[in-house]
Amino acid sequence: MELRLQSPLDMHLHLRDKDMLRTVAPLSAKSFAAALVMPNLVPPVTSKEMVLSYKRRIQEAVGQEKFEPYMTLFFRSEYDYAFLSEVKEDILAIKLYPAGITTNSEDGVDNFSIEALAPTLEAMSELGIPLCVHGETNGFVMDREAEFIPIYERLAKRFPQLKIIMEHITTKEAVDALVRYENLYATITLHHLYITLDDVAGGLLRPHLFCKPIAKRPEDRMALRKVAFMAHPKVMFGSDSAPHPRDKKEAPGCAAGVFSAPVALAALAQLFEEAGVLENLQKFVSDNAQNIYGITPPKKEVKLVKEPFRVPPSYGDVVPMFAGETLEWRIEGVF
Amino acid sequence: MELRLQSPLDMHLHLRDKDMLRTVAPLSAKSFAAALVMPNLVPPVTSKEMVLSYKRRIQEAVGQEKFEPYMTLFFRSEYDYAFLSEVKEDILAIKLYPAGITTNSEDGVDNFSIEALAPTLEAMSELGIPLCVHGETNGFVMDREAEFIPIYERLAKRFPQLKIIMEHITTKEAVDALVRYENLYATITLHHLYITLDDVAGGLLRPHLFCKPIAKRPEDRMALRKVAFMAHPKVMFGSDSAPHPRDKKEAPGCAAGVFSAPVALAALAQLFEEAGVLENLQKFVSDNAQNIYGITPPKKEVKLVKEPFRVPPSYGDVVPMFAGETLEWRIEGVF
Asked: What is the model's pTM?
């Protein structure tokens, strides 16, 4: 059995910088035609120069492979219309982090008074720049996303022309909100389609599956699977693949993040085939994102075959999801 | 400020065996007059000979310190009246584990058809041997204890003379059940009074706080605190202190268990003082257990003073709760 995916897209990707960038960027470029690259470097990506420089470093790390890094800015309420007009051609979206919520987000937004954000969001709305949001409060870890839903709703109502992407949604509540507001969209990760908190902490503790937002309840996973498997037009694949060196994951104070980019397409094919919806994977990993963002990614065909894929124990010093396990699909070639 | 505790008791303690036993037993003996020692060794403690031999090994490990190890048997539905009559004088309780639920419980009970357990439980009831239960199902990790409550209720109704101790309760549901049935009692750990899932996985992942039952929600902790702080006569302190070598905790596949025995009394004094209920600690750490179990522990006065206690980074190769932190109380002497 084989599957040909046209221009698969990863609409939420962490590539980091320097050595880590050089390790992981080629792995994403092997599977995907393009990816939306998160701006939470240290310091965060907040200027046209930083965007262009980071894009260049990504392209250098990728090398000859055909791969488009769609760039993002780290949201700041200081961005004005003039600044945004100038940077618009170089970015695809702006990413908003509530302060301190996840890796390298200390510098994020801590004021969800809409009026404080309004000038920037109005400018983005006028300029057609989508807003990507890490939607979690500082509440109890299992409730953070659900508690953030009212903020999504206020943003969606107040800025009806602004495309708002609820990033890496993990809950039934987020799925429900998605369909209530025309201008809300969502990315869903591989790992949140696969795991629940049980996989992280139900048996022995598995740090390589520890991520933010944390994996939730079985009924939440079911809600995510439902919209992903039907390739609901408002959802798209975003891996949130987040590499950390092994020694940062396998120690007390383990950092949050699952490194899934190199196994994502094979694992998605397996999951969608098991669900009997393999024909919907093309939309979930590419067409929906093209429609939502209005993009035409580089042409790239990825051919997967249903043959065992033994996932390496690590890529460099980064341990991938499914390390050492065997997936049922593998990438045979990229054309 | 000082606090004198008379014969403090730890009514749920893992002492392990061999080197680990020799590391941790003296630490419990320094703080406590006696402890109920769990039987989940490999193989589990299931005969009079094993009980007596384990007790001897504990006493050797403790040395000269005054300390009574109250012994338990690992529940088996094969135990009959004759066997139980013979072993009764050597044990204080029998501990029931659902199969595979926690460390070394693979050998536990997997059939909660009450009738399958009835002959043994009837014999225990007649002989006045309390039943200690690790009450979790195999369900979703946050629901396991709440899902087990109906089993507690069936047991409590069917065997009204049997004292049933809900071990290391973690939920509001368990607290509610406790007061509904006359013959249900509970132990509460130090760590479940202190932490929620947020402390384990809300920020960076903290394997040394990873335990089973997993720490729950803020409202659950509040329910536990309520009954502990009032020294509700049906609850007693049981640390569930569970030592694992550092390399088993600080690696993928981290084992469940918090090592709290050497810091328990100081941390409890701090918590009870902060809550303004220091005068209730005596009941929570000793008197209630004496009444519930009908025991008279060795006389031992532990004097605590409100002075900084810098918790060591480790005891042997076991990392304690609050490692490297400073508690507000310390044990000044034992008389």
From this structure: 0.93
